Amino acid sequence: MKRRLLDILACPMCKYYPLELIVFEEEEEIEEGLLICNNCNRWYPIIEAIPHMLPDDLRDEKEDLEFLKKWQERAPEKILKSGKPFNLKG
What is the mean pLDDT of each run of 10 residues along the chain (90 residues)? Predict the structure, then answer.
């Protein structure tokens, strides 16, 4: 994902802008990371340079939880414990 996309991305659920970006891996583009909505506490993974910004009912719980587990050492505590729609607490 290119950083300039942050200028146009908003939360698909509550339409909040701007989203917080946390980068886990970056080369020429952001390869792995998180986009976080600080309004509704939803998070969206960036996987293989693609932001997965789907509404809750279209998200893949298994894939999202595997992503969180993979990056739990670097993901914010608020997302790990109470992020929506999925988190590692529940």
Answer: 96 97 97 98 98 96 97 97 94
CB 87, CB 41: distance < 8 Å: no
CB 33 within 8 A of CB 24: yes
pTM: 0.95
What is the helix (H) or strand (E) element at residue 81, kind and residue range? helix 77-82
Distance CA(10)–CA(80), nearest Å, equals 21
Nearest 5 degrees, angle CA 19-CA 23-CA 26?
A: 130
> What are the structural domain ranges in the chain?
3-82
